Inverse folding.
């Protein structure tokens, strides 16, 4: 059985450090997400975009996440 995958959309998320929770002592994070990212964008292009945005933020960068959504079909 052959299965095909169709790339539907990509979301880019910038996760920023938001300090420490006073009650639990655990780190807190804020996420800024961007939808409708070009499907053929390379990791280098996405990271360059992130690098341009991070200096405009008040919080420190924790991580960058790329989330792809695909549809699987039986061929």
């Amino acid at each position: 059985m052959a299965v095909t995958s169709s790339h539907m959309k990509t979301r880019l998320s910038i996760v920023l450090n938001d300090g420490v929770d006073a009650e639990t002592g655990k780190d807190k994070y804020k996420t800024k997400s961007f939808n409708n990212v070009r499907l053929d964008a390379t990791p280098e292009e996405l990271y360059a975009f992130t690098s341009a945005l991070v200096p405009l933020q008040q919080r420190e960068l924790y991580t960058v996440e790329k989330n792809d959504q695909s549809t699987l079909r039986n061929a």
Observations:
- The radius of gyration is 16 Å.
- The first helix runs from residue 43 to 53.
